[in-house]
Amino acid sequence: MELFLLELPKAELHLHLEGSVEPETLHELDPATSVEEFRALYQYADFDSFLRAFGAVGKRLRGPDDYALITRRLLENLARQNVHYAEIIVAAGVVLWKEQNFTPIFDAIAAAAAESPVQVRWILDAVRQFGPEHVMQVAEMAAERVDRGVIAFGIGGSEQRGPANWFGDAFSFARSAGLRLTAHAGESMGPESIWDALELGAERIGHGIAAARDEALMRHLRDRDIPLEICISSNLVTGVVARIEDHPVRRLYDAGVPIVLNSDDPAMFRCSLTGEYRLAASHFAFTQSELAGLAQNSFRYAFEREALP
Ligand code: HPA
Ligand code: ZN
Prior knowledge:
Oligomer: single chain
Structural class: alpha/beta
Largest sheet: 8 strands, parallel
Bound molecules: hypoxanthine, zinc ion
Shape: globular
Helix content: 40-55%
CATH topology: TIM Barrel
CATH superfamily: Metal-dependent hydrolases
CATH architecture: Alpha-Beta Barrel
Strand content: 15-25%
Radius of gyration: 18 Å
Strand order of the largest sheet: 1-2-3-4-5-6-7-8
Distance between the termini: 19 Å
CATH class: Alpha Beta
Number of domains: 1
């Protein structure tokens, strides 16, 4: 099984660049803070404390060189796992919040990606709780870079503190600029949050695990062929799912909802894409042929039509 999973050509569709930074790398960037202190930052009492830690990691990244370094490290890791294609989410909203210039940062990560064997596309992501003007600004930053590998626009952060209905204008604008659309939804809130994201035009849903509580929504996702970007370890570590046996991945799959496995924030959740496939096998009885189907889904539901295993 281990060799099978490693050799399976895979794509990552839900992977945050800033969530891929290992404590050792943070220590390299700031030698005055020990690796142990950074490891302690990666412990979360609840979902909001994870979001604060994610913001704190972003704050540590000082500029283009730091972003280039973390991109190279992430892509090396993906190549070792036989990941052929990745849509990497960049917290452009956090760059805005830090009042750093995004242009040289994007140039640096794009240059780092150009040197990797992994095919990369970018998803620029805004912070829901920062409000509609912030989210529109990120949509504009994404629109300016559609010809440079930015394939989609998305929203993350707190569903509670940033309801989807604030963002209709930003999503319409992004769509008209040629961007594909995704939204984190139904992660820490219920099915209505997913319905609201679909109303915005989201073509994939980040997490979306709450769909398992709504039969009509599962039928809708199945019939419209809208995939959920499932991240099992993430949900356990942030506490939105209490125990692994409570995770709805199998129920969603059996209901015919399209799913793709992803790592979300691999360093912050101490997981890997290959490990997510391993969990699906060990805890949810996915067979090798089902896992091969999920790996095919990871290419099929890529926003890039040219994404090939
Ligand atoms: N959910 C919301 N915001 C995030 C996440 C997530 O899984 N990862 C990084 N920012
Ligand atoms: Zn995420």
